[in-house]
Design brief:
The complex is a heterodimer of chains A (119) and B (107). With 119 residues, chain A is an all-beta fold. In chain A, a hairpin with a 5-residue loop joins strand 5 and strand 6. Chain B is built from no helices and 11 strands. In chain B, strands 2, 4, 5, 6, 9, 10 and 11 form a 7-stranded mixed sheet that branches. In chain B, a hairpin with a 6-residue loop joins strand 9 and strand 10. Classes of the chains: A mainly beta (119), B mainly beta (107). The interface between A and B is medium-sized, with 23 and 23 residues.
Chain lengths: 119, 107
């Protein structure tokens, strides 16, 4: 059973960089041809796909965030990460990591972590 | 970006009711359409992918249909645990996009 767990600071100062890590258990993230995605949800709002990364390091980002997003993967620790630069209050959200399949879409999700941008 | 529009935005129903939620894409997405259920304070849960395939473990009262631009999620007989918010999502092209959600409430 695949499990994902987000970790990182819950509070980030404006203009700083948000950094989150997703730890994957239940199998190597390089197995099965899956991508690994980040999705966020602003308080009381809908879901926004941020982007995804393959175990090779290949990425796809949402154009609305592309200039500020960097994703990376570490197969040795079975983790992948999100960095979002120059954050503002508009980046306050619950951030989820998820497994993304070509056919099955987002089938496994982490529990989510709330990141608040505030001074 | 492909815009996903769900209707209704909210819905009141009773246990045992049959409920249908619709999702329309601004352009064709073939069958690259998924449905998710989200309860307060929890992560979304995948219910259906490829427009009509149930994820493992999802009760058979849930069903999905459609192709191209118009899709439906049907719950044949509502149970208490089904009251939640439901989202559709297209994964035909990047960026993947979600509908605005349908909040299913108890009447």
């Amino acid at each position: 059973q695949v499990q994902l767990q987000e970790s990182g600071p819950g509070l980030v100062r404006p203009s700083q960089t948000l950094s989150l890590t997703c730890s994957v258990s239940g199998g190597p993230l390089s197995r099965g041809g899956y991508y690994w995605a980040w999705i966020r949800q602003h308080p009381g709002k809908g879901l926004e796909w941020i982007g995804c990364i393959f175990h090779s390091g290949s990425t796809d980002y949402n154009p609305s965030l592309k200039s500020r997003v960097t994703m990376s993967v570490d197969t040795s620790t079975n983790q992948f990460s999100l960095r979002l630069s120059s954050v503002t209050a508009a980046d306050t959200a619950v951030y989820y990591c998820a497994r993304q399949g070509t056919t099955v879409s987002l089938d496994y999700w982490g529990q989510g972590t709330l990141v608040t941008v505030s001074s | 970006d492909i815009q996903m529009t769900q209707s209704p935005s909210s819905l009141s129903a009773s246990v045992g009711d049959r409920v249908t939620i619709t999702c329309r894409a601004s352009q064709g997405v073939s069958n690259y359409l998924a449905w998710f259920q989200q309860k307060p304070g929890k992560a979304p849960k995948s219910l259906i992918y490829s427009a009509s395939t149930l994820q493992s473990g999802v009760p058979s009262r849930f069903s999905g249909s459609g192709s191209g631009t118009d899709f439906t999620l049907t719950i044949s007989s509502l149970q208490a645990e089904d009251f939640a918010t439901y989202y559709c999502q297209q994964y035909k092209s990047y960026p993947q996009t979600f509908g605005q959600g349908t909040q299913l409430e108890i009447k």
